[in-house]
Amino acid sequence: MAALTVTLPSDLGEWVEAHTDSRESASDFVCALVERERVKQAKIAAMQEKIDEGLVSGVSEYSMKEIWQEALRRNMARKGA
């Protein structure tokens, strides 16, 4: 594990201390925040990739009703109904 020293302004340091308890150190809390941010950024990147794929794919030749019916059909098939 990499060692990293982080200096926080007093208001942020107090906030971190206020949000930790006897079972969790400030270091553990900050690690959890960083990991949460990493997961969030990965989800955003995956969603952006899907958006980009959709934009590149062009305009559909199907009506909204047809698209919706196909989405419902796929959802039912995925659920095994």
Summarize it.
The chain has 3 helices and no strands. It is mainly α and 81 residues long. The chain has a domain at 25-79.
Please, could you describe this protein's structure?
By secondary structure, the protein is mostly helical. The chain has a domain of 55 residues. It is built from three helices and no strands. The longest helix has 32 residues. 0% of the residues are buried. The model has no long low-confidence stretch (mean pLDDT 93).
List the helices and strands and how they pair.
Layout: H1 10-18, H2 26-57, H3 64-79
Overall form = elongated
Query: CA-to-CA gap between the ends?
Result: 48 Å
Count of DSSP strands: 0
Instruction: Calculate Rg over CA atoms.
Output: 23 Å
Largest β sheet strand count, sense and barrel closure: none
Q: What are the low-pLDDT stretches, counting only 5+ consecutive residues below 50?
A: none
Our count of helices gives 3
Order of helices and strands: HHH
Tell me roughly what share of residues is in helical segments. Answer: over 70%
Provide mean pLDDT, rounded: 93
Structural class: mainly alpha
Strand content: under 5%
Task: Name the features.
single chain; 81 residues; mainly alpha; 3 helices; elongated
